[in-house]
């Protein structure tokens, strides 16, 4: 059971204070939404939670069954999807899946073939990713999150570049998540309407 404790977090870029005094306890098996207008710091907070950026103040404490995990090891426990996260463009789809799930365990009962099928990408298994549409790339990024057996799932603007069918697929996959800590950064209500709690970044300006 993974918990993430945000302790008095603050972030400053140059002289601009993005947010400050942010305290929040993110608990396993719950869904959280980080909300706020464009440019408010949602993605920055998500990156700090992931350990990809350092906070200007405060700290993030990661605990697995009440045992503290060093910040530098937290990446092993998360899966992350965002529109700005790059895929290996020279890989075929199957090569990308094989590479990714070499480092992130597949969920119990899943195989590479089942991931291809559930993401509606089977017919593209041997297609080079640089030839994918933006929507297909985003569905692949989300599939790498949804089907990984990691205790923490982080998604930034998850339905970017998805059509209505892709958005429906995203929502259906979210319904099936269990026993994982899920954090979604978004300003699109339908992306996070099902979340247990909302963290409005503007409350910490």
Evaluate the radius of gyration: 17 Å
- CATH topology, by name, is Rossmann fold
Oligomer: single chain
Distance between the termini: 31 Å
- Helix-strand pattern: EEEHEEEHHHEHEHE
- State the low-pLDDT regions, or none: none
Strand % is 25-35%
- CATH architecture annotation: 3-Layer(aba) Sandwich
Could you say which overall geometry the principal axes of the C-alpha atoms support?
Answer: globular
The main pleated sheet reads as:
5 strands, parallel
Order of the strands making up the biggest sheet: 6-7-8-3-9
Query: What's the total number of strands?
Result: 9
Task: Write down the CATH class.
Answer: Alpha Beta
Name given to the CATH homologous superfamily:
P-loop containing nucleotide triphosphate hydrolases
Treating each run of at least 4 consecutive H or I residues as one helix, how many helices? 6
The overall pLDDT, averaged over residues, is: 94
Structural class comes to alpha/beta
Give the helix level as a range of percent. 25-40%
- Number of structurally distinct domains: 1
């Amino acid at each position: 059971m993974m918990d993430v404790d945000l302790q008095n977090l603050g972030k400053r870029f140059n002289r601009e204070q993005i947010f400050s005094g942010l305290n929040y306890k993110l608990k396993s098996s719950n869904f959280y939404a980080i909300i706020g207008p464009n440019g408010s710091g949602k993605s920055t907070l998500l990156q700090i939670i992931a350990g990809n950026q350092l906070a200007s103040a405060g700290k993030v404490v990661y605990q697995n069954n009440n045992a503290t995990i060093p910040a530098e090891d937290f990446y092993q426990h998360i899966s992350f999807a965002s529109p700005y996260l790059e895929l290996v463009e020279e890989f075929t789809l199957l090569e990308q899946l094989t590479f990714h799930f070499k480092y992130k365990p597949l969920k119990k009962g899943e195989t590479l073939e089942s991931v291809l099928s559930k993401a509606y990408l089977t017919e593209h298994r041997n297609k080079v990713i640089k030839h994918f549409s933006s929507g297909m790339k985003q569905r692949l990024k989300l599939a790498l999150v949804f089907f990984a057996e990691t205790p923490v799932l982080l998604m930034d603007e998850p339905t970017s570049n998805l059509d209505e069918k892709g958005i429906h697929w995203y929502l259906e996959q979210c319904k099936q998540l269990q026993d994982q800590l899920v954090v979604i950064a978004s300003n699109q209500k339908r992306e996070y309407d099902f979340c247990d709690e909302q963290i409005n970044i503007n409350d910490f300006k």
